[in-house]
Design a protein that fits this description.
Chain lengths: 429, 150, 429, 150
């Protein structure tokens, strides 16, 4: 097995050497439209370092077998690697192996939670009744919004939203009013994929727990960028996606407090999650297996373990410091360019953020702006980034988002700024 | 001409800045029947509402409203112009739309004939940008739908 | 991109050269317990040839980006590859691209169907009412049984089962009685993962369509082994898993007739499957996107396309002929060994099958038999293979299953037979 | 001795063929309270029902029934023998079970002491076969559960 030791022991204070780390990512050597690739779309999907590519391939070339169901040597070795991967990924967010359920991604994890709650028997503490309230926020990704809309429809529960201030921060005063005795579930994102703002999740969790509501956190945009200790945070359930944290497609994690997972009925059913099956009924295993029907993404899970070892090898504190530095450089440059409007407060240091900014180019549609940047090798995302209500809130249908990761450099940011300066002149506005 | 300039021809930027036949015509006014179609690009939220008024077998006029990128706006404007200039029949319009779709999906292999497509021929360059084909198609899909309803 | 041309043009009649093909599968060169690996567990998961490993890696090293949502070059190229993969995999089963929904695997595909039907509005032609009947069979994998048990529970529908004869074939006379005017869904496997028997699915589909019932076919164990033309077969819905057909983990397909997919409401919700979203409601895209919430398994889908190109390059007729030859060699050898009981009719040529047999070793538990084989490098599966009711039907709790693929040779079968002869003597029975 | 023989010691095959204390003792008979546990290995369907009768703090006897592989059957038989021979207290049993679990999960690093574990020490070899650890543990998990209930 290839092991991930991207840098020799560095303290949390040492800046990371992104130029050196780029060598671990083969795709970053690509040329796009005659320019070097400037990849600023990591919030959509991150790129994968060699230790991740190698771990998965190594497994497939030497050990691959279906897990948990066989006595043969490969099956036993594959099972060990798969369960070690579970422990590793759980450990990455401060959790124990039994608290980590494999999913195919964050969307799947959130649907699992919503459907499982929707299927809870009337006597269960999780069951929703008409009039019960589910609270989410005005800044969510559709993955943490539509499953709750559907759950509300199915159960007669009412869906409410914590509003956001103009600066992009959540309105905690309003949250304190909205979260009340009828609130049964509070679902919120740790970091917005459009604003990059790190939300005050401790406060929200405290408000929810005061009224006995279940907390569900979308950690997609925090897991690759911030140190996480989910048990310490006290959140009940949290999800993340492998492909956004240097890992493979097709795998993600659902973290749950033991009592909560224990109380949740199964969602997907099939092989490997049962104890006894007759033609007419089945009995189910305890968590995490209860939620893992059918063949799991074995190779991707092993790849994800390599990814979190890679991230841990560098250190999340250092990664966060590096990306914050990039975001600040980006902000400082963008606010100087005429006609650029940042989504969220453009003044410095007002809130904690990860390394991304979304912006509107006055008079130029986001698609056109993105196309212009692409002609210079700069990959950004354009559109509503699966957060349409948030864009509506800011009076736009689409924006340009530039998002960084540990492999981005100040040069990448400068290339972006230089190109953004050319957008409005090119389109004659 | 580099690829970006081939995409954003002067003509395209002109149309997107000065959209033609913008503003929906009154549905109940003469002549004939009218059909209206609303189309949306779910990725970016761009949308268009297009109305075709049909007099017998002839398309009398096309008007539209919408918002979106320069490609989608220019394409709608050019299409409305084309209909106004050529006085197309339903059948001719369907053929034109089919040809437009084929050229745009050709990944740069087919060029639109200026004789036939007028200003819209400038959209040929879009076919090399597969992510933008939907933008250019939006109005044409709307016309297809609107005629069917008229 | 590496292209798969494993053999030069061969006619359907030419036997395949499995010894040569083995070179495409790096893992088959492994040594296990001092013996060469004899991999007879492909029904659990197949091994992957180099063109599949290379296609996925090549994508991740040169083109990786999130699809469908960006104007930048990598995103556009990735989208093209991803949609080409859809067309390729759809074509492999005779279908059009719009008829193929990506899933994370067959279990997920079957759950998608069952949950979608369960969520159909009362006015929908798909909606189930108390007293409606769902028919499945006595030989199903749990993945094609438990989702229907749960759907029956949720809707008040009644679950019925087509029984099997002692020889493992389905009782078609009973099927004709069971499938009647109350039948709304008939779910059945094309090939049993325990018996290897190819079921008379045309007859079952005809019975179902006579009464207007929806047909759902589990094609997990046929897709890698038989030529399939699902539209010609007339089945309404069918599922398969990538990892069982030389492709990656984490991806599978749901095929559906256009009208059926169109009538099905969404199941998982989130990004990329919507047209309009406000804080309170969402509208959904047409199929297949309607069923593809969140980031899809992009790399795995591209890998699966390489896998089906590899299979097609060899030719499914030839693969089937090769595997049938191996199965017959296995059968002929096993029936000669004292104390070996095959599950299903052990006489030759009675029914069509794929290349697998399950068996019971008199006086030796399947786990112990499997362990003995493993000591000689032979990888088989032991247990109930996620088909507990079928094992109950045969009065055993577990069996040994040896399953072949295109890369197995007569030598592999002989090694198995030789080792099986030693099992009972070793355990002193 | 090759690895397979280290797994299937003579003693193990003996116990599996001639299981000791097989057949559940009457629950209501003397002495003391009894606790019964049913355990199952979902992979292969192996199952065991084990009954422990407890007299004060002492485990009076362990009887069992079940079906499964030779490892799971031998392990149950050896465990019942051990209890019969040693006259263990609840606390001692809990410690023994803990030690057994640890050795079996050690991937071949720990050996069970014959002085302490009797015939069951022959199960040390199982720890190198991670897929079989569950089989060997089945009866011991059942005893843990049964004592707790007694
Ligand atoms: C017949 C059959 N159906 C369904 C499945 C489930 O497939 P998966 O585990 O890939 O979801 C399998 C494999 O385990 C199978 O053999
Ligand atoms: C904040 C947030 N939540 C959820 C998701 C959904 O993740 P996935 O598409 O991997 O399921 C994303 C990414 O698209 C995201 O940014």
């Amino acid at each position: 097995m290839t092991s991930a030791t991207p840098q020799t022991a560095a303290t949390a204070a040492d800046p990371i050497d992104a130029v050196r780390l780029r060598e671990d990512f083969p795709i970053l050597a690509e040329q796009v439209n005659g320019h070097r690739l400037v990849y600023l779309d990591s919030a959509a999907t991150s790129q994968r370092p060699l230790p991740v590519l190698d771990a998965e391939r190594d497994f497939l070339e030497h050990t691959n077998a279906a897990v948990h169901r066989g006595a043969h040597t490969l099956a036993a070795e594959a099972t060990d690697l798969f369960e070690d991967a579970r422990a590793t990924v759980a450990g990455f967010v401060g959790a124990d192996a039994e608290q980590l359920v494999w999913t195919s991604g964050a969307t799947m994890g959130l649907n699992l939670v919503a459907y499982s709650i929707g299927g809870a028997s009337a006597s269960s503490s999780l069951a929703l009744r008409p009039g019960d309230e589910i609270v989410t926020t005005a800044i969510e990704h559709h993955a943490n919004l539509i499953p709750w809309q559907e759950l509300a429809l199915r159960t007669g529960a009412v869906l409410r939203h914590i509003p956001a201030h103009d600066d992009g921060t959540l309105d905690l005063a309003a949250a304190a009013e909205i979260i009340g005795p009828r609130t049964r579930i509070v679902a919120f994102t740790h970091v917005s994929n459009v604003l990059g703002i790190i939300n005050p999740v401790e406060e929200i969790i405290a408000l929810a727990h005061q009224v006995g509501a279940l907390t569900v956190m979308d950690a997609c945009q925090s897991a690759p960028h911030l140190p996480l200790d989910l048990p310490a945070l006290g959140v009940d359930l949290a999800v993340f996606s492998g492909h956004k944290m240097m890992g493979p497609y097709g795998v993600g994690g659902l973290y749950g407090r033991a009592e909560v997972l224990e109380a949740m009925p199964p969602f997907l059913t099939g092989g490997s999650m049962i104890t006894t099956v007759t033609l007419d009924r089945a009995e189910y295993l305890p968590p995490p297996q209860r939620f893992e029907a059918g063949t799991q993404p074995i190779g991707p899970a092993i790849g994800l373990a390599a990814a979190v070892r890679y991230l841990d090898g560098i250190g999340l504190e250092r990664i966060h410091a590096h990306e914050t530095m990039l975001a600040e450089r980006m902000r400082a440059g963008l606010v100087e360019i005429p006609g650029i409007r940042l989504l969220g407060d453009p003044s410095t240091g007002s809130v904690e953020r990860v390394g991304l900014w979304s912006f509107d180019v006055e008079g130029v549609h986001a698609h056109d702006a993105g196309q212009f940047l692409d002609a210079r090798g700069i990959a950004v995302r354009v559109g509503h980034h699966c957060a349409a209500p948030l864009h509506t809130r800011y009076g736009v249908t689409a924006s340009v988002r530039a998002s960084t990761a540990l492999y981005n450099t100040p040069d990448d940011v400068d290339a972006l700024l230089d190109a953004v300066r050319g957008i409005r002149p090119y389109f004659g506005v | 001409m580099n690829e970006l300039d081939a995409l954003y021809r002067e003509l395209i930027l002109d149309h997107s800045k000065h959209p033609q036949h913008f503003g929906l015509a009154d549905e109940d006014a003469e002549p004939g029947h009218s059909g209206t179609s609303h189309q949306k690009n779910p990725v970016c939220g761009d949308e268009i509402t297009l109305r075709a008024r049909v007099d017998g077998e002839t398309i009398a006029d096309v008007t539209w409203e919408g918002r979106g990128c320069s490609i989608s706006q220019a394409s709608a404007s050019m299409l409305a112009d084309l209909v106004a200039e050529e006085g197309l029949s339903r059948a001719e319009a369907v053929t034109l739309i089919e040809g437009f779709r084929e050229a745009l999906r050709s990944r740069g292999k087919l060029e639109l004939d200026e004789e036939v497509y007028g200003d819209a021929a400038a959209l040929s360059g879009v076919s090399k940008f597969s992510a933008r084909v939907k933008c250019a198609m939006l109005a044409w899909v709307a016309l297809e739908d609107a005629i069917a309803k008229a």
